[in-house]
Amino acid sequence: MNLFLTTTLLILVTISTTLLPHNAYGAKCDPDDESGLLAFKSGIKSDPTSMLKSWIPGTNCCTWVGVGCLDNKRVTSLSLTGDTENPKSFLSGTISPSLSKLKFLDGIYLINLLKISGPFPDFLFKLPNLKYIYIENNTLSGPIPQNIGSMNQLEAFSLQENKFTGPIPSSISALTKLTQLKLGNNFLTGTIPVSLKNLTNLTYLSLQGNQLSGNIPDIFTSLKNLIILQLSHNKFSGNIPLSISSLYPTLRYLELGHNSLSGKIPDFLGKFKALDTLDLSKNQFKGTVPKSFANLTKIFNLDLSDNFLVDPFPVMNVKGIESLDLSRNMFHLKEIPKWVATSPIIYSLKLAHCGIKMKLDDWKPLETFFYDYIDLSGNEISGSAVGLLNKTEYLIEFRGSENLLKFDLESLKFGNRLKYLGFVT
């Protein structure tokens, strides 16, 4: 009798479970979402680290790696990120247009997958709720669509580190909700559209590492929310536009290095008291560094290398610089600046060909432990570097050639990270 009752109960439970909708126990997600995601998986030809291993048909796709859902029902985000420290952590293939079935998708994040190829995925135009596009560090190519401005619901748009070519479409200025526009490290050509001034909500503008040319347009008066401005590694010419001065309350990163900018470094940069990073390296700036730089008390990274700057270099009141590069200008510093020696956090010091004439034994920096790069080459520095180098635990590279340094190599304690040691005269 007990066996009969037990068997009957099992049958009833089985029947009731079978009749319940699949979603009741989270066994399946929406059919359109599932088929769209599985089509994406089928477009992936290589997945060495089994990133998509959990994407199994018939299971709840809301539990799949990289898939985010709203109330465990509809897919709202697709986020797959490779590990740059692992050379096998990539996906090879294309982005399936079937992802257009994910009608509730508000964010797509395909980052550091390295080998995702093909043109700009036009199916993104069919996703009405899409707000965030981050397709970074892949191999997508071709032009950015001219009608990109029709996606005016976007709040963040990043295609950095791909192989996109052609100009920046002028219609991009219609994306007035954007807070981030990141198109760096592609092969974009032409000029910066003046119409970008319409993107008044931008906090992050990154166009570095392209082949953009012409003058940097005077558009920044209307971009007063900018925190990060990255225009380095292009072909820009002319002066730093005056309108950048309007960014002084908010701007923390100004990167204009590796261009063909000229003229004097504007005095107004000394007003940027929130500035963390200033890179003006490898341009054609002339004259002196403004005395107003003494006001940059919060700057951590300053790179003025490879210009035509002359004495005197201002005494700075920086509280703790991390990285300083003044190399290959026309300075005659005579000694390593005292404000450098007092920094408790500096890790990179590059003062090559800066007219330094001092005995290195006399330099007593407050902290040497964290140094990883030191370049003092091309000066007239005498004495021994043993005392300095033996106090550096993380040193990767020391360049001291073209000086008057003398010491016994047997006295050196080489750290585990040291890769380059140069003393050739």
UniProtKB/TrEMBL annotation:
<keyword id="KW-0964">Secreted</keyword>
<dbReference type="Pfam" id="PF13855">
    <property type="entry name" value="LRR_8"/>
</dbReference>
<protein>
    <recommendedName>
        <fullName>Leucine-rich repeat-containing N-terminal plant-type domain-containing protein</fullName>
    </recommendedName>
</protein>
<keyword id="KW-0433">Leucine-rich repeat</keyword>
<dbReference type="GO" id="GO:0016020">
    <property type="term" value="C:membrane"/>
</dbReference>
<dbReference type="GO" id="GO:0006952">
    <property type="term" value="P:defense response"/>
</dbReference>
<keyword id="KW-0611">Plant defense</keyword>
<feature type="domain" description="Leucine-rich repeat-containing N-terminal plant-type">
    <location>
        <begin position="31"/>
        <end position="69"/>
    </location>
</feature>
<keyword id="KW-0134">Cell wall</keyword>
<dbReference type="Pfam" id="PF08263">
    <property type="entry name" value="LRRNT_2"/>
</dbReference>
<feature type="signal peptide">
    <location>
        <begin position="1"/>
        <end position="26"/>
    </location>
</feature>
<keyword id="KW-0732">Signal</keyword>
<keyword id="KW-1015">Disulfide bond</keyword>
<dbReference type="Pfam" id="PF00560">
    <property type="entry name" value="LRR_1"/>
</dbReference>
<comment type="similarity">
    <text>Belongs to the polygalacturonase-inhibiting protein family.</text>
</comment>
<dbReference type="InterPro" id="IPR001611">
    <property type="entry name" value="Leu-rich_rpt"/>
</dbReference>
<keyword id="KW-0677">Repeat</keyword>
<dbReference type="InterPro" id="IPR032675">
    <property type="entry name" value="LRR_dom_sf"/>
</dbReference>
<dbReference type="InterPro" id="IPR051848">
    <property type="entry name" value="PGIP"/>
</dbReference>
<dbReference type="InterPro" id="IPR013210">
    <property type="entry name" value="LRR_N_plant-typ"/>
</dbReference>
<keyword id="KW-0472">Membrane</keyword>
